Amino acid sequence: MGFRLLPLCALLLTLCRPAAATPPPLPLYSALGGGMEEVVVEKSIHLSHLALRKQVRWQVLARHNGISEPYRLKKGMTLTINNTHIVPTELDHGLLINLPELTLYHFVQGVYQRRYALAVGRRSWPTPTGDYRIVNKARNPTWIVPASIREEMAESGREVPERVPPGPNNPLGEFWLGTSAPGVGIHATNRPWSIGTSASHGCIRMLPEEIAQLFPQVEVGTPVKIIYRPVKMALVADRVYLEVHPDIYGREKKPLETVKHLAAVHGLTDRIDWDKAAQVVKAREGIAADISLTPAPIPGSTTAEAPTPREMGLLPLQRQDRKVE
In terms of pTM, does the model score above 0.85? Predict the structure, then answer.
C-alpha cells in the first residue's frame, strides 16, 4: 500500500508547491525630455565635456557631427545635438538611477526636476539594483577604505591606506550621500573624466559641480531606486518611442526580443515599424527615436506630425496609463 501512495504523495507535493513568482511586466513610459538643438562652442573644450553636459555619449556626438580625433572643439564651432530621452517613472519622489543609462533622475513630490550623468560600478564590481534610501550625508567626508579595496590595492602593489582625509586625493570629493545599499554611496569624484563610464567599485560618482547642486536638495530618508533598463519604450501622443543603451553588465542578451515582448504586452506590435526598431537596437545610441508605423493618410486629410520633444524641468509626472499630449 505504501508503494502505491508514494506517487500520489509526490503529486500532491508538486501541486501544493508555490508557483514561481511571475516577474512584473516591463513598464511602458509616457514622457519625453530633451530634443534637437544647435550649440555654438564658446571656448575650446574636449568633446567629452560637452557630451556630459548634454547627457549624450561622446562617441555618438562625434559620429553625428563628423568629428574625429583628437576630439577637440574649437571656439565658434556649431554642433547639432539630439538628447531626446524617455523619462523613467518607477518612483515619483526621490532619486531614480538607471545603470545602463549612466543617469540619475531627480523627482520631488511627483515633479521631475532634472537628470545627472554618472559613473557606476564596473562589470566586475556592479552597482546593485533595488529599493534603498539615503541614510547619511556629509560634506568633505573622510574615506574609510573598505577591506576589499585595500586587498585589491595590495595585490596591485599600491600603498594601502585605511583612511583618506578630505582633500584632492580623496576619491569621494566634497559631497557624500550614503545609501542603504551596503557600501554604496552617491558622491563627487576627483576623477571627473570617469563620469559616463562603468568604472567604480559599486559606488555612484557624479560631476563635482552637479552633485554640489543636488546635495542640498536631498534629505536623509529620501528614496533611492536603482534599476537596470537598457531598453526603454514610451507611448507619447499616440507615437511609439524606443531608447536602447549599451548593456554594460551583459544582462540583456536579446534586446530586440525585449522590444517585441514590450510591444506585445502593451498592445503596440502592429503600431511599430520593425525595421526602425531593429536599427535603434543595433545602434544602441541611448537616444529615444520614433519607431511608429506611420498610417496611410486618409484622402482629403493631413497626417498629424509627431510631437516635438522638449527638455523637461519641474514637470508633474503623468500616470502610466495616460498619454502626454
Answer: no
